[in-house]
Amino acid sequence: xxxxxxxxxxxxxxxxxxxxxxxxxxxxxxxxxxxxxxxxxxxxxxxxxxxxxxxxxxxxxxxxxxxxxxxxxxxxxxxxxxxxxxxxxxxxxxxxxxxxxxxxxxxxxxxxxxxxxxxxxxxxxxxxxxxxxxxxxxxxxxxxxxxxxxxxxxxxxxxxxxxxxxxxxxxxxxxxxxxxxxxxxxxxxxxxxxxxxxxxxxxxxxxxxxxxxxxx
Length: 216
Ligand SMILES: [Zn+2]
Ligand SMILES: [Zn+2]
Prior knowledge:
About 20% of the residues lie in helices and about 30% in strands. By secondary structure, the chain is α/β, with parallel strands linked by helices. The strands form four sheets. A six-stranded parallel β-sheet has the order 7-8-9-10-11-12, with no helix packed on it. Strands 1-2 form a two-stranded antiparallel sheet. A hairpin with a 6-residue loop joins strand 1 and strand 2 (about 15). It starts with a strand and ends with a helix. One zinc ion binds near residues 8, 10, 13 and 35.
């Protein structure tokens, strides 16, 4: 089978389906895609929003709260303090399953009447991390996403046990790092990519070298 160019039914751009792709669809017994790869990625990733936050009012206490749901979305959203309180009963939104009706239709109904948490953080385990999302067991952090066990970390994402660091992505068990991508067990590390077990690198070394030349 030869490669074929098709028009995406969503964005109307042309995209190519390679022979290997056709073989794969045949093997999986599924029809070839009608959307281009980029539109398909957007559709796959749209099931959850982590990084884009909006202001909206809590549907329980009325206070303004940061949320991963925009105010235009017609769903019930509780701020984190309200969501984690014991003064409401989630079972009151429960529905009996009706086997004579389509399952997805019933799931949609359930989703529309059940309150959502404004953010996906484990609010009760965090301290002073109100401007962040999808994090747990963290303290004094700002604008960090998908993180656990972090302290004094700002503008960073995909983290576990990162401390006193800024502008990092994928950081684990590291401390005092800046603008780093892919960190593991690093200390005082600046501007590295995919670094593991690094003690003091980058900027400080440059400063030291300049000082040594200057003093000589
Ligand atoms: Zn497209
Ligand atoms: Zn509230």
